[in-house]
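Re: the 414-residue chain
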Amino acid sequence: MNFFGKKKAGSAEPSKAEMALLNSNNWEEEITEQVSELREVEKVAEAAQERVYTLPTNYTLQDMLELMVDSEGSDLHLSVGNPPALRVHGRLVFTEAPVFDQARAEALLLPLVSKEKAASFQQTGHLDFSHEIANLARFRGNLFRQQRGMAAVFRVIPRNIPTIDQLKLPAVIRSLCQEHQGLILVTGPTGSGKSTTLASMINFINQTRQAHIITIEDPIEFFHKSQKSLIDHREVGEHVLSFADGLRASLREDPDIILVGEMRDLETIYNAIKAAETGHLVFATLHTNSAAKTVDRIIDVFPGKQQPQIRAMLSESLKAVIAQQLLRTIGGSGRVAAHEILISRSGFPALVREAKTSQINNYIMTNRDEGMQSMDACLVDLLKAKRISLDTAKDIMTDPLFFKNQGFPIDVPH
């Protein structure tokens, strides 16, 4: 059927209106085909059998940690009254093993920490520490008490620091590593890979810049060997009293770059902003899911009377926010990072000063040429690449209409 009527004599080329409609129809067909292929991939993945993780009857801590590493797991959970559990590609699964009891907990876990730390654990009921097994990996551990007895979580830290390329981080990350002052935040929920992203950025700087880098962590996760840069690692509780204490002291230690493992409290946040404001490049993390929420979280930490001052300071010092989440790939055979990237350019400082954080997402969308991207735009790219399922995207999308306009079958509330 000819929707365009008769062509003019001698006219071999379709009109602009015809081309627009043809392109539109082709685009819709392409999206429909992509969604159909995505559904087929999901069905095949769902049919795959779950792996069974087995431990020997008299399992040791090394047995459990080796199983986690061999299974490409991220966390080992030990809780008295339950069998050991692994988090593999974001999913928590119990092992086929005897129940972890209090006697085994005390025998396996208490020898991992010093007498001083053991005393602190007895007093507070929780403790952060690190553990290393030669030729296997390093682990970040947390020991805590729960209703049935002791419990612990071990998170694996890769032996080799991954590069920006290996993590497939957005290209703009490299240019952020060339900044000489300001605050760059990597944010996301627990287990989203914030520390790994920061480690890859510090590694890139270490290979390309002559700088003094001080890291303040709890505990130290990735050890960087000085290359072009001089790197000093400091651990809370071992080398400094707190993050805030380490930040204050670092300003007298001639740093070019300061990495703060986590901005946990008002004093740490204020000192980080102050350090960025006074000519240092500061990297830090927060447990927020988006750039807008990151700005709000920082401001809301402070008393109301102080917030205008903090807004003014943050508007000038905040250089970028990298909000990331680790998502299960189709079939659960791995995870892929999704990123929202905010970079401070013309117009952004005013949004912070004037408390217009609700406009930050539009600011990101209109500045894609600067390397920025919204989380929703990143999710659409991952869907088109068949890396994640529609259900996964639905769990974290913020604007269903955006996905529907891209051709994906998303229900939009009226």
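The first helix runs from residue 16 to 47.
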